[in-house]
Amino acid sequence: MFLKKMHREEPxxxxxxxxxIAFLLLIFFLVTTTINVDTGITLIxxxxxxxxxxxxxxxxxxxxxxxxxxxxxxxxxxVDLSEIKYNLEEFILNYGQNPELSxxxxxxxxxxxxxxxxxxxxxxxxxxxxxxxxxQIRNIESLKTFGLTYSALNExxxxxxxxxxxxxxxxxxxxxxx
Length: 178
Fold this sequence. Notes:
Structural class: alpha/beta
Oligomer: single chain
Strand content: 5-15%
Distance between the termini: 101 Å
C-alpha cells in the first residue's frame, strides 16, 4: 500500500524553434518597414535637344554665384535677395531689346554656382526666388494666352506655356578651391 511516488520531470518549453521564429520576425519587419531617405533638392532637367548647340551665347546666360560669405552676385554684380526677381524677369523677358540680356525666354539660361562654404539657408532662399520668378512669368503668360492661371490649365495648355517659357536652370557642383 505504500505507493512509491513517481518522480516526474518539470514540464518545459522546447526552445529549439525560438531562433527560427525570431529570424522570421526580423525578416518580416525589414521587408515591411519603409525608410525615408532625404534626397535633397530635386530638379527635373529638360531633355537634351539634338538641335541645341553645346555653345551658348554669353548674352543668354545669367550667372548667379552665392559665395562663402552668403553674398549673391548676378553676372558679377552684388545684389540683395529681394533684387533677384526683378533682375531675372528683366533678363528672361528681354526679347532681344537690350543687347546685354537674353534674346528670348526660350534661350535664357540661369547658371547657379556656389562655393563650398556657402550658407545653406541663403542658397535655398536664392533658389526659391529663381524658381518663383519662373513660376510667376509662366503664370503671367498663361493669363495673357488662356485667361487662366498656370495651375488651372490642362496638360496641353501647360505644355504650350512651358515651351514659351522653359525653366532652364543649371546648377553646378560647388567650388571647393576656396
